[in-house]
Structure formats: structure tokens, C-alpha cells
What does this fold into?
Amino acid sequence: MEYFKSMKIIKPAIFLFLFFAGSVYSQTFPNYGKFNQSRVQEFWQQIDDIFNDPNFNSASWGVVIKSLETGEYLYKRNEDKLFMPASNLKLFTTSAGLMLLGKYYHFITNLYINGTLDGSILQGDLIIQGFGDPTIGGRFSDGDVYKVYNQWADSLLSLGIDEIKGNLIGDDNTFDDNGLGSGWAWDYESYWYSAPTGAISFNDNCVDIIVKPTKSGLPAEITIVPDTRYVTIINKVNTTNLNTNSDIDVYREKGTNIITVFGKIAENSEEKKTSATVNNPTQYSMVVLKEVLQRKGIKVSGYAADLDEEITNLDYNGLVKLFTYYSPSLEEIIKITNKNSRNFYAEQILKAIGYEKNGYGSIENGVKEIKKLSRDFGINPENFIMVDGSGLSRLNLVTPRQIVDLLSFIYRNEIFPVFLESLPIAGIDGTLARRLRKSKAENNVKAKTGYIDGVRSLSGYVNTADKEAVTFTMIVNNYIVPSALADNLQDLVCLRLANFSRK
It folds into this structure.
């Protein structure tokens, strides 16, 4: 606002300069009209009023709104202060993935024989070498969690293998074994949004839990997908009378696969679905694969295990590769990551960057590459903190200006069409599907949401009423009111932007 206040008294020479500069501006951007600055000033004051909401007096808002056509800042507030970004950090991870790996990048998984073939019998182990594929499960196969493993079983049968007189061993050594990110809250660990990462993964490293009511006063019925013996379910869900609200929660004992499902479900309720994480994703994947192979008629004499527990030195030069499985493209994976804000996918992408650029999939290696890339965005890598790929950690710190600098760079980069297509669309899909419906912002605002306790963020793109492309970020930290109030302020700003005209 200081800039606009200083415009009230102007010396003649300065006035002539501004007059001619304004003429050039109007010729360059004729659609923005004669009263450009007064409209921007009015807009700035309106946005100030929104963020001065007394509900957030004890919180901090960081906001930057910038024209992508003129480079002009339409609004700034605490633009260079550090904020926890929550899932807006995925903007860094996914854009870096597209730039460093390419939209056609595919995760691979190799299947090898460690032994010999004796007719239809494999005398030895089946080795699965993983490189971080996050997609094996139901998300890319219309909910059929077994589809990929069934395909592998069919491939083994087509090769004439119907018995394995050895073990199923998962080699996850392309990634580190640190499944959880630095600064992740311990009480998040049971929930799907804290799924551990790994070079070998299955079903987002979760089990899906379906709870169905029975009769009032009796325990509910619980089934799990995949139907595996790898986890133990303790049922503490009661069926209640018709007038109560359903409330289901889960807790996995740390370091185990004992999952307690507790709460209540109304007798007339539809089934409820939730998910819980698993411990040791590699062994989980191998156990489920063994169960699938056996259902397909392939006998497995040995057990399912993590390579670290079985073989210390494995020389792939002496093994026979059966086949390689390729994931969907990174372009498709990033849509899931951003539209639905999947933390697990973001962490896998970050580690894949680390592996492809440094030969080892770790958060540190991935962050190192993003820090290098940040100089291209105009961001000093020493001036922000990134400790995971998803934004789940409270240790991540970025400034609003840095996010807008990133989004401005992407806007002019070849990845922009793919990146833009990955963002939630207001009133249409993803995490913005229920927001800004039946307004001028619907199908116009395309932005990434973010949430952890006390943090709400929204960053992306919008076209004004003049069809002027604008990028923005809005982050609030340390609020204690309902998150819906933060959403309301963000939505109000998006509406003002969608209706903003310089004319």
C-alpha cells in the first residue's frame, strides 16, 4: 500500500515521465484500460480487507498475486516471510519431476531368476528388483489391486513356470530404508497420508478396510483389501442404533502390522471405507505376490522376504531377467499426485529424482537436485527448507514469493501444459471439486491445495475478467479456527480475481 499512497503528490517532471510510461503501457496492453492503477489499488484494498479478518488475528497470512503478462504484483502480504507450505510443496516436487525426469518417464520393476529352470520348475529364487513404482495396486486399474500381480503370474505361466522351489525376494536397495519423512508427526503414522516409501510398494503401502454394519449392539463386519494374512485386524467397531452418526478410526501398533479398527457405525449406514499403512512395504508386497501366485496355480515352496534379510551380495550379471514391468507415465502419475494430493506419490517421485540423478533414491539426493534446479526459478536454494516431497513435515519452510516465482517460471516452460493439467480445477475435480461451484472461478481457478494442522494453502493460476493470466499463492499458518474459514477467505480472493478487470 505504501506505493499507492506515494502516488498522491507527484512533481511535474515525474508526472510527465509517468504519463508517457502509462501511454506505452496502454499501447502494449490495450485491453487493460485507462484506469489500470486505480483498479489495482482498489483491488489491493479489497484483498487487504479480506485478510484482515479478525478470526485470523493470531495467525499469519502470506500472499502474493502476480500478473503473468505484465509481471506486476497485484497484491503482496508477508511475501518474504517463511511459511510451512503443507502440500503446496508438491508444486516443487512434481514440476522438478517433469523437468528432470520427463513426462514420459516410467518407473520399472525387473523380475529375475536366481537359480535354474528344470522344466516347469524354478530351482531357486524369484527376485523382484524395484525402482520405486508407486502405481502397483488398484489406483490405475479400476480398483483391481491384484491386476499387475495377476499379469506377472500369467507371464510366468506363459514362460512355462508353474512351481518355484525357492523364495520370493524383493530387492528394494535402489532406495533407502527411511520410509517416513523427517518431521512427520508420530500420530499420523497409521493413516494413509503417511504411507512409508520404498523401492518396492503395493497398494500405496496400505490395506483398505471396509466396515459394514450388522445389527445394533453387535460388532460390525470388517473385510480388507488385499485379502492378506500379512496384517492382523482387531475389530472394535460396534453397530449402533439408527439415530447415531458413524465414526471409524484406525491405529497400527508401531513397528507391527497389528491394526485396530475402532468406533461405531449406524445400523442403517452404508459401508464405510478407510485405509491403514503397513510396516515393511517390501515384505508386504512379496507376501501378497506369493498369495496371488498360489491362487493362480503357481506353487511356491519358500517364503516371501526382503532381500536384506536373505542375501547380502547379489550379482545381477549372473541372473536371468524374465521381464520388465513399466508403470504408467510420469505425466499420469503427477495428475494423481496433485489433483488428489497423494503424499506417497510425491515422496516416490522425489526419491526417483535422487536415484536417477545420483544413483540412490533418498530424500536428501532428491532435494539436492531440486535445490540445484531452484536457481533456474530465480530462487536462492539457501533461502528455503525442504525435507520431504509432499509437504507433510512441519520442518518445510518456503516464502510466498518463492512459490509464485516457481509458478511464473513453469508458466513459460515447456512443461506448463502437462503441469497445469495436473492441478485441481475449481468446482470440477480433485481437492477443489466442491469449492467455487457455480461462480466465475469454476473451471477457471487451477490450483494446488495444502493442509496440515494449523496450515492451509492454495497456489495456482486464474484468468481475470480481462482474460489476463495471473498466478497466486495464499498460505496461512498458526490458525486455530475451523479450516473452512481459511477456505472461505481463499475462495473469496479467487472470486475477486476471476471478476477483476482493469477497465
Remarks:
- The first strand starts at residue 60 and ends at 67.
